[in-house]
Amino acid sequence: MDQQMLDRPQRARGRPALNAVQALDEDQLLGLAFATFAERGYEGTTLRDLSKRLGVSHNLLNVRFGRKEDLWVRAVDWRMAQASPFVEAAFDEPADAEVRLRHLIQRFCLWATRNGDIVSLTNVEGCRSTWRLDHIVEHFVLPFQRRLDDLLDAVRRRRPVHDLSTPALMALLVQGVGFYFSAVPMQQRLGAGGEVDDAHAAAQADRLAGFLLAALLPPAG
């Protein structure tokens, strides 16, 4: 055997080389993991299947992320960190409360045209009481709801607001508008596919936002 081969450090069979772990693009992995969890559900997703889709070893994912539970949390936190600022920016605008509320609803409806994977995940996880639902609610839904409650209270001090709870309003936005834009095959079968295609989705989102705002904010008189 060549002396250089004998002198080369050997690694344990079945363990990925450290440089292979470091070379794996984290955004690519987390994006694929989130998309798979959203499409197949937690139970229908395995690390072995993800490793095949990425073209890497199963052990590499174990070294990088540990358990499937850990990968789910990392993927969800990563995806929400990407998607949330677009909507939440409306809370911090230098404008009065009603303007910020209008912008928030408009942004949320537009957000729904771009984030069907998040809508799908919340639809799957929202129907069962699990540690995953606890994570989503505690870290993302409740903080948003508190800010929305505060904003609605500020608007109510200035003008009439329809007596609709924030859970109901958020359901209309996520499971209503969000599902409408994420379930494109259904809309196509119903004859409304053109409303949600790439060329028309933004305009349709604006129409839906106007509809919701008209119901939420009745005329002041």
From TrEMBL:
Does the keyword section mention Zinc-finger? Answer: no
Q: Name one GO molecular function term.
A: transcription cis-regulatory region binding
Q: Quote the DNA-binding region ranges, renumbered to this chain.
A: 46-65
Entry-linked PROSITE patterns: HTH_TETR_2
Q: Which domain of life is it from?
A: Bacteria
Sequence ranges assigned to domain HTH tetR-type in this UniProt record: 23-83
Entries under Pfam families matching the protein: TetR_N
Record keywords, A-Z: DNA-binding, Transcription, Transcription regulation
**Which named protein is this?**
TetR/AcrR family transcriptional regulator
